[in-house]
Specification:
The complex is a heterodimer of chains A (147) and B (820). Chain A has 147 residues and is of the alpha+beta class. Helices cover 32% and strands 30% of the residues of chain A. In chain A, strands 2-4-5-7-6 form a five-stranded mixed barrel. Chain A is elongated and about 70 Å long. Chain B is of the alpha+beta class and 820 residues long. In chain B, the strands form six sheets. In chain B, strands 6, 7, 8, 9, 10 and 11 form a six-stranded antiparallel sheet that branches. The chains are: A alpha+beta (147), B alpha+beta (820). β1 of chain A pairs antiparallel with β3 of chain B.
Chain lengths: 147, 820
């Protein structure tokens, strides 16, 4: 066997080992219940903002403290604390991916990803708001064009 | 039915050219295929002429499609979905081009345009290689043309047509107002265009000058990887296993320079307009473009090995096939929507997954079958390389680069892995570190190899010769590295101490690479710059490594906030990266006193500019940064921030806005208004309403403060701001040693102060409500210091220059040998 083949084998084995260890270090996607079941473990919590509960953020008091309640699809909720300002589109997101740990009754969040409803569908509704009010009878107007 | 105000003609031309490009590229592929296969020159010449005609027709079609789409966007023809979705009237002219690449169709078009340009150059220059090489290029063009086709075949949607009308798209199916009698089942109203006053606009993050130039360069890089691939295929196909190397090498170098610069322009864009506080985050979209580049670099090195020693030809074939395969795979990853949760900026799913997959599978299948069946015929030297030879260590280097790419793409493919095996594995806690801890080893190995390998000779190197060359650069590098490590204060303690040691070794290795290669230009090449492309590129690469290591490990957070509440279990350092600045009040950050001075608004857009003044305490350094933010922009909520940076030769001071005061706050009274409420009652204030949740009395208060019959009343309440924010607060009323003491609570961002004034026996309370006169103006921001970031940018430019010098040298060598 040539030297180069030995090097090749060693390197490839190392690369595969790295990938396998990556899979083992990986985290999981969880609901509130399953996240609570493994306190202190880093998880991806899939939830949305509970809009009936207070969202606390006051940059004058502390720009690094956001707290809110997240509720998952099973209806289970948990209080979340986050050490950054509100992410963009936070309150209108239909889904939040909260990366962090459940510790002492709180979900300590490191990263928040907001997943938003498709944007352009909203905008067509804005366009609709601009409907010209002088066109009191739109159907009649459009039938004019047949003539 | 006629629709008022529609411009149908551009779209009709557009459709025509799309069909024409589809047909022409298919004809070109077929004719070039026949030209390659034909046994005699007469047949071959006939097919070749036809193929050229078809390819030029294809080019005209693609350029026409581009011109028409540009016309539609720049004339704001919002009856076309593409213009409506990606542009708006308020958009500056300089960003009109960016609208192209915001959508998938436009970026495919861009790719296709570069194929056309490259194809025309190949027709002009590649002589006997034209037919087989252009077969591959034309077929790729056909695949790209199908991406724009927008045809339905057996119920499958093939491609996405950029000329589709807004009213024909799915957008209108959710807009009853656009239909007769407000019913989506009725036809669209003939006057619908009068209701569409403006487009949806370009994503504000793309409204940056780097986004005008980064995509064209990146796509030229992507597109150009097909050329060395096509030469490799042509070599296999025509069984000229060794000859393709000569014309392919300059193209591979070109591709490496352009793709590399394109990727780093993206990094520069991320640095200047995104807010993750850096230029690289190992995001799947970034990785997807880096991986083909890495494999391409491996391929270039094995090609050089082959040219000089005859070794590594099989590996070269493999690397160029894989380069192109990874370009296609990356395209699939970033455009199919499969990355979902793991990437912040992939394209959304356009329903073309199957098509993208077929495109990738087709090329992969053809290439690997050809490679597999011809593998045994590819000449290979069975004698072993000497371990003192240059080719041996170059090959090791290529292998390390390739495996580094393999590991990166493996990690990036986690969502694909989940999809294939039905698992639900999420990325690890610290995804960036999971890449860094592996790639630091790669950086060290490559730094050292880059430094020493040029001093080796092909075939074998006498030990004396090697040591004579390398001794002085090694000594200088050792001194330089020792000085940098001694006085550079590289003390990155976010991860383990072991990782810090690796950073130190990495810094030393990259300094070694810079000095040894710079030295080689004089020692080995006698200062002949024309010949020293490789060395210059390696110096640049060393600088890139050093710049990455220094800027990341010595990055300083200036806005580190010592006040505020620290979260349980959170590192205090990690907890406070944002700091709040009240207008006019200086706050100390590092050595600076930082003041939020003023703000101003863009004349047309909801874009605000903030003047943040930095004044040094230790010297007379003083400057103003103007980070800006899009506030509640076009259907978004919150702010999208654009950083600003002050550049010095050895560091950048970098800041962006992370939170703002409620901008539309109005003024009200400054005295307490007394209101009587019961638990459950609500009360309006100027910015929303509040609900009194409960009133509780506590008598378990410390006697030494409150006296023997002291008590504490608490009135927990919630404030519902009309902006959607909900706040909770609890004003308190203490009875302490016979005195009533009110402890008010505030919502500063709403300018609201609430005082509990009296608690009646029937549990109703008197609340004093005050809304402050002058709303407090403030911003919260993050500020960083990036040291030696310029080393990275300069290194990139130098690497590209080095590669281009090599390319020019290879082209002139090729000319010489053909003329002889």
């Amino acid at each position: 066997m040539k030297k180069i083949h030995i090097v090749l084998l060693v390197f490839i084995a190392a690369a595969i080992a790295v990938l396998i260890s990556f899979l083992q270090s990986a985290s999981t996607y969880d609901t509130v219940d399953t996240a609570m079941a493994k306190p202190g473990k880093f998880v991806h919590l899939m939830a949305r903002l509970d809009k009936n509960q207070p969202v606390e953020y006051d940059a004058i008091k502390n720009p690094n403290y956001l707290s809110f309640t997240a509720v998952d699809t099973l209806g289970k909720s948990v209080k979340v604390v986050y050490n950054q300002p509100k992410p963009e589109n936070f309150e209108m997101a239909e889904k939040l991916v909260l990366q962090g740990k459940y510790v002492n009754g709180l979900f300590q969040c490191k990263t928040i990803q907001t997943k938003c409803p498709s944007k352009y569908k909203d905008d067509i509704k804005n366009a609709e708001k601009n409907i010209n009010t002088t066109l009191s009878n739109p159907t009649e107007k459009s039938s004019d064009n047949y003539n | 039915m006629d629709y008022i105000g529609e411009h149908r003609l551009p779209g009709q031309f557009g459709h025509f050219f799309i069909v024409l490009s589809l047909v022409a590229s298919l004809v070109a592929s077929f004719s070039y295929f026949k030209a390659t296969q034909s046994k005699n020159d007469i047949d071959g010449g006939y097919w070749k002429r036809l193929a050229r005609f078809a390819f030029i027709t294809e080019c005209i079609s693609v350029f026409s499609i581009f011109a028409i789409l540009f016309y539609i966007i720049s004339s704001h023809l919002f009856e076309y979905k593409y213009a409506w979705q990606h542009s708006s009237r308020s958009l500056e002219v300089k960003y009109l081009l960016s609208c192209f690449w915001e959508g998938q169709e436009g970026s495919f078009l861009l790719w296709s345009i570069w194929h056309c340009v490259l194809g025309l150059i190949l027709i002009k220059t590649s002589k006997q290689w034209e037919a087989p090489v252009m077969t591959v290029v034309s077929f790729a063009q056909f695949c790209l043309a199908t991406m724009l086709a927008g045809l339905y075949i057996f119920g499958y949607k093939i491609g996405s047509n950029p000329f589709i009308l807004l009213r024909e798209s799915d957008v209108f199916s959710v807009a009853p107002g656009m239909h007769i009698d407000f019913d989506v089942n009725n036809p669209v109203r003939s006057d619908y265009l009068t209701m569409i006053k403006d487009g949806n606009d370009l994503n504000p993050l793309l409204q940056n000058y780097w986004m005008v130039i980064h995509p064209p360069v990146l796509f030229m890089g992507f597109a150009s990887t097909i050329v060395p691939f096509a030469f490799a295929m042509a070599g296999l196909w025509t069984r000229k296993f060794g000859e393709w190397v000569r014309p392919a090498l300059p193209w591979a170098l070109f591709s490496a320079a352009v793709l590399g610069v394109g990727i780093m322009m993206g990094a520069k864009w991320a640095y200047e307009s995104l807010t993750f506080g850096g230029y690289w985050a190992w995001d799947p979209v970034e990785n997807a473009s880096l991986v083909p580049w890495l494999v391409l670099i491996s391929g270039i090195h094995t090609l050089l090995i082959y040219k000089h020693s005859g070794h590594s030809l099989r590996a070269s074939f493999l690397f160029f096939i894989l380069t192109f395969f990874f370009v296609l795979y990356s395209t699939f990853l970033t455009r199919s929507g499969i990355l979902g949760e793991t990437s912040v900026h992939a394209f959304t799913d356009l329903g073309m997954n199957a098509q993208l997959f077929v495109y990738m599978a087709l090329f992969a299948f053809a290439a690997f079958v050809l490679y597999g069946t011809r593998y045994r015929d590819i000449p290979a030297i069975h004698k072993e390389e000497s371990s003192s030879s240059r080719e041996f260590w170059m090959f090791i280097g290529s292998l390390v680069i390739f495996l580094s790419a393999f590991v990166i793409i493996g990690k990036t493919s986690l969502p694909v892995f989940n999809k294939l095996f039905g698992t639900k594995i999420a990325p690890p806690e610290n995804p960036e570190f999971s890449y860094n801890q592996i790639q630091i080893h790669v950086a060290i190995i490559l730094g050292v190899l880059t430094a020493i390998v040029q001093y080796l000779r092909y075939k074998s190197t006498p030990a004396k010769f090697f040591w004579k060359g390398i001794a002085i650069p090694t000594a200088i590098a050792a001194v330089a590295a020792a000085l940098v490590l001694q006085f550079g204060d590289i003390n990155y303690r976010k991860e383990t101490f072991g990782f810090l040691v690796f950073i130190w070794v990495g810094v030393a290795a990259s300094i070694y690479a810079i000095i040894a290669n710079a030295g080689y230009i004089w020692v080995g090449l006698k200062g002949k710059l024309k010949l020293s492309g490789g060395s210059i590129a390696h110096v640049g690469f060393g600088m890139v490594l050093l710049g990455i290591l220094l800027s990341s490990s010595k990055k300083e957070i200036l806005s580190f906030n010592r006040g505020g509440i620290t979260m349980q279990g959170m590192d205090a350092k990690e907890a406070g990266e944002n700091i709040t600045l009240i207008k006019g009040m200086p706050v100390q950050m590092g050595k600076y006193d930082v003041t939020y001075v003023s703000d101003s608004m863009h004349p047309k857009k909801q874009q605000w500019y903030y003047s943040i003044h930095f004044k040094s305490r230790t010297d007379d350094e003083e400057f103003t940064l103007k980070p800006d933010a899009f506030v509640n922009y076009k259907g978004n909520e919150g702010l999208m921030a654009n950083p600003d940076a002050r550049h010095y030769w050895n560091h950048d001071v970098f800041t962006y806005i992370s939170a703002l005061a409620n901008p539309d706050k109005t003024k009200d009274t400054s005295t307490y208004h007394t209101k009587v409420l019961k638990p459950g009652d609500s009360l309006f204030y100027s910015q929303g309403y509040m609900i009194l949740d409960d009133v509780t009395a506590r008598t378990d208060v410390p006697k030494e403060i409150f006296g023997p019959d002291g008590s504490l009343h608490e009135a927990p309440m919630r404030i519902f701001s009309k902006t959607g924010s909900i706040f909770s607060l609890t004003p308190k009323l203490a009875l302490a040693k016979g005195n009533m003491v009110a402890i008010p609570d505030t919502v500063t961002s709403e300018g609201l102060v609430i005082q509990l004034q009296k608690v009646n026996p029937d549990k109703s309370v008197e609340l004093g409500v005050k809304e402050s006169d002058v709303p407090l103006e403030y911003v919260a921001l993050k500020a960083y210091k990036f040291p030696f970031i310029n080393l990275l940018w300069f290194g990139v430019v130098l690497t590209a220059i080095g590669i281009i010098i090599s390319m020019v040298r290879r082209i002139s060598l090729n000319r010489l040998s053909t003329n002889r």
